[in-house]
Design a protein that fits this description.
binds zinc ion; 6-stranded mixed β-sheet; about 10% strand; alpha/beta
């Protein structure tokens, strides 16, 4: 099949849900253009913004770093700066490889990179947390997710960021949507809406890949020869996320485009819920970070873990 875009080169990719056949160049451009469009549609990044990207060493975050660097280089007059931040959760045998991959890749791109560890911030790492947690009901991914969000917030403050970008894609957001639905956490669905969340400090959190399928990002990383860590986190299978991921992929195989329609429904619902959320945040009485209750989820998690440590 010849590429439907340029009509010249043999295609390497069949986008089943749209019927497009794309050559390597046109496929890569489609991902980069889509990212640029999402950024501008939701006003994610402004002139002169210093953007901190959460880089785990996986295909999504390294691809995001690459695309942002490329877009910034194309528009040098916009005066944007880029920094990669990696959170070291303290998972033996897993994190070390990706730290090296991120360091080398940032060096290759000419992007500043920083590492911040759970141990240094919270005095407990993930390997310890797995032993200290009172029961398996505190799932590895929810503990880790809570700590990671805070670690990235702290990193962004320290690095004086205007924008924090993470590589969440269509699949991640659909899984989160379904997890919240199944858990009865309807209010949280509002946080999925990609309009940047603005903090008191003026810092924004954005997700430039939110309209792209996970497997298209993986294919992009392969085509761009972006090195990434393929080994998955040893604790990931505890999450219902894995089941939902497989379920949604099966649906998409049988009904191409279904993730897109589900994504559109999710956006409509999350938009309504977001508009009802008050922007005036409470502060956690322990750490003074933004919180929905008196004590934030991070301090609650740390309290549970450290109280077990003392016994
Ligand atoms: Zn082409
Ligand atoms: Zn707190």
């Amino acid at each position: 099949m010849i590429c439907r875009k340029c009509q010249k080169i043999e295609s390497v990719y069949h986008r089943v849900y749209s019927g497009e056949y794309l050559c390597k160049k046109c496929f890569m451009r489609s991902i980069e253009n889509k990212t640029a469009k999402t950024i501008s549609r939701y006003s994610m990044i402004g002139y002169g913004d210093r953007v901190v990207v959460g880089v785990s060493g996986g295909k999504d975050s390294l691809s995001l770093l690459y695309v942002l660097k490329m877009l910034f280089d194309q528009h040098p007059n916009n005066g944007n700066e880029l920094v990669g931040i990696t959170i070291d959760e303290g998972i033996k045998g897993y994190r070390d490889e990706s730290l090296q991959i991120v360091k080398d890749f940032c060096q290759q791109l000419g992007v500043e990179s920083k590492v911040l560890s759970y141990k240094s911030l919270f005095e407990v790492d993930m390997d310890e947390a797995m032993v200290l947690r009172p029961s398996e009901k505190m799932s590895s991914c929810s503990m880790c997710g809570t700590l990671r969000r805070r670690a990235i917030d702290i990193a962004a403050e320290t690095l004086d960021a205007d924008v924090v970008a993470t590589a969440h894609n269509v699949d991640d957001q659909l899984q989160t949507f379904m997890i919240n639905m199944l858990a009865g956490d309807v209010e949280r669905i509002g946080w999925i809406y990609p309009e940047p969340v603005k903090y008191a400090s003026g810092m924004k959190k954005v997700k430039p890949f939110i309209e792209i399928y996970e497997y298209e990002i993986a294919f992009y990383a392969l085509q761009r020869e972006i090195p990434f860590q393929s080994e998955e986190c040893p604790y990931m299978n505890e999450s219902i996320r894995t089941d939902l991921r497989e379920f949604l992929n099966k649906l998409e195989r049988d009904h191409p485009g279904i993730k897109h329609s589900a994504y559109n429904s999710m956006m409509k619902i999350s938009r309504v819920l977001r508009s009802r959320q008050s922007t005036e945040g409470k502060k956690c009485s322990i750490c003074r970070h933004d919180s929905t209750g008196d004590i934030c989820s991070v301090c609650q998690t740390i309290n549970v873990l450290t109280s077990n440590k003392q016994i």
